Give the backbone structure.
Amino acid sequence: MAESIPVAPSPARAHDHEHPAEPGFIRKYLLSTDHKVIGLQYMFTGMAMALLGGFLAYVFRMQLAFPGIDVPLFGVVSPNEYNSLITNHGAIMIFWVAMPVLIAAFGNYLIPLMIGADDMAFPRLNRLSYQLFLVSALVLLASFFVEGGAFGGAWTMYPPLSASSEFNQTPLGTTLFICAVALEFVAFLMGGINFVTTTMNSRAPGMRMYDIPMVVWMIVLASILFMASVGPLVAGAVMLLFDHTLGTAFFDPQRGGDPILWQHLFWFFGHPEVYVVLLPAVGIVAEIITVFARKKLFAYKTVLYTAFGTGVLSFTVWAHHQFIAGIDPRMANVFTITTLLISVPIAEMMFVYIATLYGGSIQLATPMLWALAFIAEFLIGGVTGIFLGASGSDIYLHDTYFVLAHFHYTFFPIAIIGSFAAISYWYPKMFGRMLNETLGKIHFWGTVIPFNTIFIPLFVLGAAGEHRRIWDFAQFPELASEPLRNLDKVATVSLVIMLAFQAVFLFNFFWSLRRGQKAGKNPWHANTLEWTTESPPPHGNWKQMPTVYRGPYEYSVPGRDADFWPQNEPA
Amino acid sequence: MNPPAYGSVRVVAEQRREPLIPNGVMGMLIFVVTEAMLFAGLISAFTITRSSAVVWPPPGQPRLPFEATALNTAALLASAAALIWARRCFDRNRRTARLPLAIAVLLGAFFVVSQGAEWLAMLRQGLTLTSSQLGSFFYVIVGFHALHAVVALAALVYTWVRLQRGWLASSQLGTAQVFWYFVAGIWPILWLVVYR
C-alpha cells in the first residue's frame, strides 16, 4: 500500500471489481458483508424467535385459562416452568424480536438503500454484529436445556431473586441468560455504530439532513438512544453476574448491597429501550402513510425535533417503574411529572400523522392498513399509560394485568404491527415480487381483532386487582371468581386464534417468493431512493449511484403530471 | 413552473464529498460515548453504595493507595500528551511521529504494569473481589478500566507498527487517539472517586 491512503472504497465495491463471478452459497449467504443479506438474516432470525416467543405465550396462557391442563405440544406446566416461560417470552420478544427486526433488519436493509450508499460504513463489523447476535440467540436457547431449566426471574432480573441460585433454582440458566443479553447488547452496539456513521458519512450527493427519509432518522435516533442508555445496564449486568457466580454482594442487602440499585441501573436502560423500539416503528409508519395517502409528510421538522425531545425526556422517566419499590415519595412526584410530560411529544407525532392523512387520497393497501392500525392501537397503549405514570393510581395498578395489557398495547403495535407494516411494504423490494393482497388482508384482520380481544379483557382483570405473576389463581379464592376466570379464557382463546392466523402470513410470505406478481422497480410509486434500483437490488445497490435533488415526501406536487417525484430525478 | 417551496433547484457536486469526520474516528467516538455511560453507571452505583454505608472503608479493609497511584496517573496523562505531540508531528512529517508515539506506548505500558503491581499488593493486604463492597467495586471498576487500557495499548502498538512500515493513515491514527484519550481522560475521575 502507498504512503498516503485515499478514501478507501468499501469492501463491497472492491469485491465487485475483483470477483465479478457469482460467489458460492456460503460466501453469499453465511459470510456475506452485504447489508441486504445481513438485514434479511436478522429478519429471518427475528421471525423464528417471534414464533418461539408466541409459542411460549401460548403455553402459559393455556395454563392460566385452564389451570393444570396438559398443554398440547408442551405438557403440564409446573410453577418453575411457568416462571421460565413468562421470563423468556418477555426477553425474546424485546431483545430477539423487536430489536433485531425493527432496528437491525430494517436498519441494515434500508439505511444504505434510502440514503444512496453502496453498503454500510463498516461492512465487516456488520457481519460480526449478526454473528454475535446469532450466538446470543443460541446461548439463550441453550439455557432451556441445562440443569434446572431456563431463568425464571422475569426479564427485569430483579435481585435478590436473580442474584443467588439459592432463590432462583436455575444456577446455569441465570448465567446463560445474563450472558445472552450481554452478547446481544454488544451485537447491537456494533450495529448502532454502523447505522449512525453510515447515515452521517455515506449519503448520496445532494442529500441534506432534512432530505433523509424519516425511517432512517428514527433508526439512527433509536441507535443513539440505545447506545447512550445501555452502558449502565452492562455495568449492572456484570455486577449481577459476579453476584450470581463469584459471590460478590453488590445487590445482596444482607451483606451491605442494595437491591434497588439494580432497579435503577436496569430501568435507566429499560425505559429508553421502549423508545428505542418505538421510534423505528414510527418512522416506518411515516414512510407508509405518505405513500398511501399520496401526501407530503405534515411537519417533517416537527416530527424530527419531537423525536429528539422524546429521546432526551426518555432518560428522565425511569423511576416510574419503581413507585412501590420504596423510593422517596418526593422523587415519585418528579417522575410522575416527567412521565406524563413524555406523552406530549408522542401525542404530537400521532397528531402529525393524522394531519398527514387529512385530505389525502388514501389507498387501503395492506401496508397502509397496518400503519393505520399502528396509530390506533398505539394510542390506546399511550392513553392507558397515563394511569400508570401517575404514582397515585400506579400504586394500586402496579404489577397487575393492567400494566401487562398497557405495555402489550404499546409493544404489540410497535414490534408486531410495525414489523408487518414494514415487511408488507418493503417485501417487493426485498424479493422482487408482490405479496398477495387478499391473504394479506385476511392476515391483517385475523391478527388485529384477536389482539384486541386478548388484551381488553386483561385491562378488566387488572383493574379487578389480578396480579401478573400468579401461576394458578385457584390458590387465591377472591381472584378466582367465575367472571374473571372467563375473561382469562377469552384472552387465551383469542391468542390461539391470532397465532393460527400467522400461518396465513407465513404461507403468503413463502408462496409469494416464487409465485407472487413481479414487482418491478417501484410498485408503490414512492419517492425514496430504494425504489430507484432493481428489486431485489444487486450487490452494490446501483449500477450508477444516485444523486439527490429534493426531500423524500414530494407527493401530489401541483403542476406535475405524476403524483410522485423521486428524490433522484433532476428538476 | 415549480414553486420554490417544492424542491428548489440545487447545485449538486458530482463527486462524493470527503466526510467531515472519517468513518473510523466517528465510529470510535460513538463507541466512546457508550463506554462513558458504562463508567457513569459504575461510578454512580459505587457512590450510592458508599454514601449509604455506615463505615467506609469497611472494617478490616485497607485504605486504597491514593498517593502511590498518583505517579501512575501522571504517567497516563503524560502518555496522552505524548500522543497529542505525535499527532502534530504526523501532520507535518509522518516519520517524525515515531518517537512521540513510542513514548506514548511506553508510558501507557508503564501505567498498565504498575497498576497490575498495585493490584497484587492490594490482594496481599486482604482486599479481594468478595472481601467487601469496597473490594467488589474496586476490582470491577478498576478492572473495567484495566481492560480498556490493555486493549487501547494494543491498538497503540498496532498503530506504531503501521507507522514504522509507512502504512498508517491519518484516520487510523485518529481512531487510536480517540480511544486512548478516553482511557486516559476517564482515569483521573475514577482515581478521584474510587481511591480517595
